[in-house]
Amino acid sequence: MNPIYVPLAISLGAVPGALSRYYLTILFGHWFGTAFPYGTFFINLTGAFLLGFFDTFVSRLEIFPGLYLLVAVGFLGSYTTFSTYTLDTSNLLQTRNYKAALLYWSGTLVLGFLSLELGIILANMG
Fold first, then answer.
1. N or C terminus: fewer CB in 10 A for the chain?
2. In the chain, what are the domain boundaries?
């Protein structure tokens, strides 16, 4: 694949992925309120499902590599990074690398939350 097509394919998928995330979040907020992040919850679950389905489906086919970049990396990557996080965890489990899978799965949750809180604290200090 020509290297010029890599960022192009990712970008063409990223724009609709990001817009889908934005508008679905707004839609769910209107439908169910904002006391619970229903939109993000839905996006993370559907993104994980779609990446699992797409990655498994296309691994059986010989497809244009740009299509994988457009859908999996571009669209689903901007729709939610949670989908990639769950795929990475699944791949570690499939290789029977249980310690790494547990570390990655739990470490991302705990350290991600702590990193967010640290960013909030530092931003409030200035």
1. C
2. 5-80
Give all strands (DSSP E) within the chain, no chain letters. Answer: none
CA distances, 10 to each of 3, 6, 35, 72 (Å): 12, 6, 33, 9
How many angstroms separate the CA atoms of 16 and 75, rounded? 6
**Torsion sign (Cα): 99, 100, 102, 106:** positive
Give residue-wise pLDDT tens across range 51-107: 989 988 888 887 888 899 999 999 999 998 787 788 889 999 999 999 999 999 999
Angle at Cα 24 formed by Cα 123 and Cα 19, nearest 5°? 75
Find where tokens 């570390």 sit: 103
Write out the H or E segment, with its range, that includes residue 84. Answer: helix 82-94
Cα separation of 86 and 48, whole Å?
6
Query: What DSSP string describes 23-58?
Result: HHHHHHHHHH-SSS-HHHHHHHHHHHHHHHHHHHHH
Distance CA 41, CA 28 (A): 10
The C-alpha atoms of residue 9 and residue 31 are separated, in whole angstroms, by 33
